[in-house]
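Please fill in the sequence for the structure shown.

STRUCTURE ENCODING:
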């Protein structure tokens, strides 16, 4: 039995509660949606549901694992960790199924890293019930020639087979003719045709000489909801029951009369929303044999319009109240035409409601955009794009799902900072998109395999893994994880390893999606001189900050094991022998110190510039230097300061505003003058 954290259980319960109410409102499924009623039905039955943001995501394609979770619930599977109403017999059946198919499912779990082992119990249950066959399992995950694995989306042809088995009608379906009557009948596998024919004859899917079935098309959540709602326990027809095919018992209890106004009406679904009492509303199914009257005269269901006042007679069947008789008391003045989308059964290339009307499209959009990061799975000529994204499910597991969007005619799609058309987007491309509702308006495309370049800004280890920080020409820094099996190459070094990389190296990374698969580095050697301004001693990597001859400062990391010497190599030293103010010479490997030579004497700083101001009372002068960002530098003048002009000794009182002077400070970093040389009069 699967182990689920208590927090996940609580979240699952919350989702179940939020989506179990029959009038559940999904922000992305308006009442005008062609599958609105079906989505409400499967939500009410707890077969399918939305997320905590009240999104159903009707255009998302589903994979075989997700379908298995839905189908198992329909077939009778109950998880004791989620459903408390599990009998001993039900537990035993689940255990028997799991044990029967344990070896084969364990082999799939072992052979495929992307195999969803948390679905094994549901899959075993469906195998035991006959809804799935062992021959169906290879369709869940496939491995490409290069070893890359893909979780496949459920196809319409397989959906037809599985749904008929859920209905318990496989034996009956296999007696059907080999022709389906669809225009693309030749493209439907012969083994699938009987199932398609059965669903077509049952009214679950529509077809004809001018309609395609599109067997290879991916199944969306809305499409599956519509098929399940129509195939399993349809309104007014209890001839089929999930997984057994047996007729369900019908129990008629007390009759109830209700008078109300029609708010919504879906003719072909025999489904109606009535408003009654003090602004109360409820949905009801209409029994297909229910008589519909105006006065004493019988009429048909098409007579009913939104706004009509009805008197309905209710009966309870299978735990639900259904309408067994309708009397139209008052007809609405306005003829409300039923939305033609309501008569759509399963959307195909010829049946999906059009969303090309910009006004209609914008009217149903959320107020804010959403960012989608993922991999392009499919782009159609008609402007539909499928994007594989990762998400965390209610169990806390990372899953992949395919989300479908319509590409707006005004969409801006760029690649390498150049605008491209949707036809140039390829399967496997990385996409960062902005969407509103089910429409894509903006996207940036990157190829699956690409190269990034920059300079190595930082190396670090996080949780035992190597992280490289790359800085591009714009100064932007990006982290990349370098796996232990990544091949590292560096110019002039054979068999390079992680420790051979240096800060400042020119780096080129080969990426496949966001994974680094190759790393090439090129270093350079140089020498610098400067005065030590700061020393950082660390077990990770020590650093030394220098003031260079041009007045700028720069920090250099110290390579572990770097050579440090005093007085040009006469005496070895360590980082602990380095002092602030000392002049040093560095031999660099890129920007890391591989050798440091420390001068014997601490360098006293000198500043040169024009005297801007002198204050003998407070003992200071302000000097304007070319290197000082602020423009002036304040120097303290003690009474004992020595002043020279050439070889002639002067006093500080001889200093005047406007003189060009060179000032030797008493110590590095000090602001106190030791000696002042007058270079030029004002």
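FILLED IN BY: designer on duty
SEQUENCE:
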């Amino acid at each position: 039995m699967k182990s689920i954290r208590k927090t996940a259980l609580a979240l699952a319960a919350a989702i179940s509660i939020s989506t179990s109410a029959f009038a559940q409102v999904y922000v992305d499924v308006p009442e005008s949606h062609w599958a609105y009623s079906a989505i409400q039905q499967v939500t009410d039955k707890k077969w399918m549901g939305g997320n905590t943001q009240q999104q159903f995501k009707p255009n998302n394609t589903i994979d075989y694992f997700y379908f298995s979770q839905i189908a198992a619930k329909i077939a009778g599977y109950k998880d004791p960790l989620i459903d408390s109403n599990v009998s001993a017999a039900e537990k035993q059946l689940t255990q028997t199924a799991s044990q029967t198919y344990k070896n084969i499912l364990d082999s799939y779990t072992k052979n495929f890293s992307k195999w969803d082992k948390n679905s094994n119990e549901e899959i075993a249950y469906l195998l035991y019930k006959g809804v799935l066959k062992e021959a169906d399992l290879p369709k869940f995950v496939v491995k490409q020639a290069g070893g890359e694995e893909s979780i496949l989306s459920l196809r319409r042809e397989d959906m037809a087979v599985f749904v008929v088995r859920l209905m318990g009608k496989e034996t009956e379906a296999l007696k059907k003719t080999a022709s389906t009557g669809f225009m693309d009948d030749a493209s439907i596998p012969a083994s699938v045709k009987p199932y398609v024919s059965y669903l077509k004859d049952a009214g679950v899917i529509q077809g004809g000489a001018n309609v395609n079935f599109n067997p290879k098309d991916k199944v969306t959540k809305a499409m599956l909801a519509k098929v399940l709602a129509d195939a399993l326990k349809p309104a007014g027809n209890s001839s089929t029951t999930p997984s057994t095919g047996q007729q369900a018992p019908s129990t008629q209890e007390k009759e109830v009369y209700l008078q109300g106004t029609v708010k919504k009406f879906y003719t072909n679904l025999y489904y109606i929303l009535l408003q009654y009492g003090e602004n109360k509303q409820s949905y009801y199914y209409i029994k297909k044999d229910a008589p519909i009257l105006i006065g004493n005269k019988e009429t048909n269901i098409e007579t009913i319009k939104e706004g009509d006042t009805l008197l309905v007679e209710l009966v309870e069947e299978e735990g639900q109240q259904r309408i067994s008789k309708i009397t139209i008391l008052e007809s609405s003045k306005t003829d409300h035409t039923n939305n033609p989308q309501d008569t759509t059964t399963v959307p195909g290339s010829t049946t999906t409601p059009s969303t090309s009307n910009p006004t209609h499209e914008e009217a149903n959009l959320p107020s804010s955009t959403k960012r989608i990061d993922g991999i392009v799975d499919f782009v159609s000529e008609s402007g539909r794009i499928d994007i594989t994204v990762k998400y965390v499910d209610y169990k806390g597991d990372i899953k992949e799902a395919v989300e479908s969007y319509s590409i707006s005619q005004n969409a801006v799609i760029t690649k390498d900072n150049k605008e491209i058309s949707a036809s140039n987007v390829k399967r496997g491309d990385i996409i960062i998109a902005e969407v509103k509702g089910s429409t894509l308006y903006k996207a940036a495309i990157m190829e699956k395999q690409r190269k990034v370049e920059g300079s190595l800004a930082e190396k670090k280890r996080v949780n035992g893994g190597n992280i490289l920080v790359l800085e591009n020409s714009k100064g932007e820094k990006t982290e990349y994880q370098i796996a232990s099996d990544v091949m590292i190459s560096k110019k002039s070094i054979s068999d390079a390893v992680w420790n051979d990389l240096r800060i400042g190296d020119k780096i080129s990374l080969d990426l496949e999606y966001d994974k680094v698969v190759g790393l090439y580095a090129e270093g350079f050697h140089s020498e610098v001189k400067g005065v030590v301004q700061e020393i950082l001693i660390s077990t990770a990597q020590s650093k030394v900050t220098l003031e260079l001859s041009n007045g700028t400062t720069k920090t250099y990391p110290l390579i572990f094991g770097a050579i440090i010497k005093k007085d040009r190599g006469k005496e070895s030293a360590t980082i602990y022998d380095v002092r602030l103010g000392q002049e040093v010479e560095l031999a660099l490997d890129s920007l890391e110190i591989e050798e440091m030579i420390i001068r014997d004497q601490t360098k006293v700083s000198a500043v040169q510039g024009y005297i801007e101001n002198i204050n003998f009372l407070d003992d200071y002068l302000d000097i304007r230097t070319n290197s000082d960002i602020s423009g002036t530098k304040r120097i303290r003048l003690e009474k004992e300061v020595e002043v020279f002009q050439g070889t002639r000794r002067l006093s500080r009182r001889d200093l005047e505003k406007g003189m060009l002077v060179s000032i030797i400070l008493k110590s590095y970093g000090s602001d106190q003058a030791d000696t002042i040389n007058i270079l030029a009069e004002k």
